Amino acid sequence: MTVQKAIEVLKAGELAVLPTETVYGLFADATNEAAVQRLYAVKGRPIDKALNMNVADYNEILKYSIHQPPYLEKLVKAFLPGPLTLILEASSEVPEWIHVGKTTVGFRMPSIQATQEVIKALGVLVGPSANLTGAPSPRFYNELTTDILDKAAVSIQDDSVYGLDTTILDLSADKPQILRQGAITAKELLEAVPELSEIV
Hints:
- This protein is an alpha/beta fold.
- The chain is built from eight helices and ten strands.
- It has helices at residues 2-11, 33-43, 58-63, 72-79, 96-99, 113-122, 146-149, 186-192, and strands spanning 16-19, 24-29, 53-55, 65-66, 82-90, 104-109, 124-126, 154-155, 167-170, 177-180.
- Strands 1, 2, 3, 4, 5, 6, 7, 8, 9 and 10 form a ten-stranded mixed sheet that branches.
- A hairpin with a 6-residue loop joins strand 9 (167-170) and strand 10 (177-180).
- The radius of gyration is 16 Å and the shape is globular.
C-alpha cells in the first residue's frame, strides 16, 4: 500500500522519503521541473548543485547518457542495484534542471526493493539525501527531521541500510576516476571489471 501511495504522490508532483541501501533520500519525479525545484527548496540545496538520476535498469542509463565505455554493462551487472553512483556524459534527454549546465549526469540504482518498485513505476527520480543541506544524512528513520518529513507526502521506513555513502565513479573522462570512496572499494571494482585498470 505504501509503495502504491508513494507512486501516486510522486506522479502528482509531491515529494516522498524513501530508503536506499546507504541513507534515506528525498525523492521527486525527475521529469517534473516544479517538483524538482520544490525538492531544492525543501533541502535548502544550492540550485547550481546538480542531482543524480535514480533509474530502474540499464536501458534507462543508456537513454540518458552518451559515449558509454564498452564495459558499462559489465559494471552495471556486477554492482547495480547497489551503492555505486556512475557519472557519464549526459544525453539530450536529461532535463536541464537536473544537470544544471553540466555536460555530465550521475546515475544511481538503489537496491531496496520498495524504492526500486517506485522508480520503475515513474521511470526516473531524483533522490538526494533526506536532510537539510549541511546536516548529517539520515541513516535511520528516527534520524529524519520534521523539516523534511512534514514536506514529504509519504515516507517509507526500511532500516536495512549500510550507513555508508555510495562510491562515485566518474566514467565521463578518458580515464575512470573514483570521486568518492564509499561502500564499494576500488579493489572490488577492479576484480569485477578489470577494464577499469586505469582507475585513479
